[in-house]
């Protein structure tokens, strides 16, 4: 739905502005995470929406899905290099919220330390 598919800002906004996307990336910054852990950390997201968002991020190359051959099967999600490159954007949003909106850090904000190591 980019206004201009050749504009890098439009294309990036197309990817990251989907509901829950940046929060998923924020939570995946902690490392490998299972579906149930993501569902618990994102209060209000439905399992269907979570599944669709993860699949879309996987198709964009932002999230990697790993299935382990165990019984029962274990599936974990992790950020790819492309996904980790979004962490400075999230860090910038956190800093903006603190400075201009008077908000404190979230209870679980793994991005601050991770974004510094990516930059």
UniProtKB/TrEMBL annotation:
Listed PROSITE patterns: HTH_HXLR
Domain HTH hxlR-type: 7-105
CDD domains linked: HTH_ARSR
Keywords, in A-Z order: DNA-binding, Transcription, Transcription regulation
Keyword Hydrolase: no
Protein name (Swiss-Prot/TrEMBL): Helix-turn-helix domain-containing protein
Organism for this UniProt entry: Patulibacter brassicae
């Amino acid at each position: 739905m980019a206004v201009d598919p050749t504009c890098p800002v439009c294309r990036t906004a197309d990817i990251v502005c989907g509901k829950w996307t940046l929060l998923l990336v924020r939570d995946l910054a902690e490392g490998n995470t299972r579906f149930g852990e993501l569902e618990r950390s994102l209060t209000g997201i439905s399992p269907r929406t979570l599944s669709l968002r993860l699949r879309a991020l996987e198709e964009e190359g932002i999230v990697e899905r790993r299935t382990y051959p165990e019984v029962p099967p274990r599936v974990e999600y992790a950020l790819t290099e492309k996904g980790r490159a979004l962490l400075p954007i999230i860090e910038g949003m956190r800093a903006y919220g603190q400075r201009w909106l008077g908000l404190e850090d979230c209870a679980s904000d793994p991005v601050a330390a991770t974004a510094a190591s990516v930059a």
